């Protein structure tokens, strides 16, 4: 199992259309995590569809850390207020994030992943930081799994630089391909994304980026690499298989998705394809979507400018 429990969501209905309950018990979960599972379970605010949060899920599962999953993001349609600078009929199918009140108490910015201690007094946010945090928790609890950040300080520094690089060169370009409306912009974004994959494949030092074990760079890239079928479906953009680096890249992708503790975290492709249509068709109004729409990178969202109520 991915998590021992999933917390039920209770809210006053605001949506204009019916929805299924947001909470779910993640697929394939074990009753008790092995290795780093000792100690009180963490509370993990996540969203099944979010690739940023997916990074943290992979890290937690890699270490077998016990946690309680709270499905903390959902979607709802909202009526136009009348104050928007456009015809309300243009947005009758726009979707906004609904956020679990417990998430907002833990992290007022309302972003996932967010991890808290069992008593809610200590909070960790940001996907790459959450991966590093999982390393620390596993070490403190006597976990047997190898750390995601290499123990050697030189290799650790290299890995963290590349994690940041992948976040910029692949993650941001993925959202530009989805959200931007100009076809030339989309194509240029995809070309930069492919270049980022090429650099990653050429720089990796084994089956995975830092060697023969899963590492933090793999955790940062994998949720987006797995989802690139979305761009082929909605934009006709496919990762090339005839480049000098292609075999190394696809061998890495197969090896990473084939790891048991990774495979159980992968979202259903058809379900995710339906979800991400909101972005592909310009109907999603999230902080990431709003940031990319105004020309910023996905990781450069502004909580005020790009808040969920922003147009």
SSE topology string: EEHEEEHEEHHHHHHHHEH
User: Judging from the principal axes of the Cα atoms, what is the shape?
Assistant: globular
Major sheet details: 5 strands, mixed
Give the class from helix and strand content and strand pairing. Answer: alpha/beta
How large is the radius of gyration?
A: 19 Å
Q: Average the pLDDT over all residues and give the rounded result.
A: 82
Helices, by number, come to 11
Distance linking N and C termini? 39 Å
**What order do the strands of the largest sheet run in, or round the barrel if closed?**
1-3-2-6-7
Describe this structure in words.
The protein has 311 residues and is an alpha/beta fold. The protein folds into 2 domains: 5-140, Glutaredoxin, CATH 3.40.30; 153-300, Glutathione S-transferase Yfyf (Class Pi), Chain A, domain 2 (Up-down Bundle). The chain contains 11 helices and 8 strands. The protein has helices at 51-63, 101-106, 127-140, 153-179, 183-203, 216-226, 229-235, 246-258, 260-263, 269-280, 287-293; strands at 5-6, 42-46, 67-71, 73-77, 95-99, 114-116, 123-125, 284-285. The strands form 2 sheets. The chain has a 5-stranded mixed beta sheet, covered by helices on one side. The protein has a 3-stranded mixed beta sheet with strand order 4-5-8. A hairpin with a 6-residue loop joins strand 6 (114-116) and strand 7. Helix 7 crosses helix 10. The longest helix has 27 residues, at 153-179. The protein is globular and about 50 Å long. It starts with a strand and ends in an 18-residue tail after the last helix.
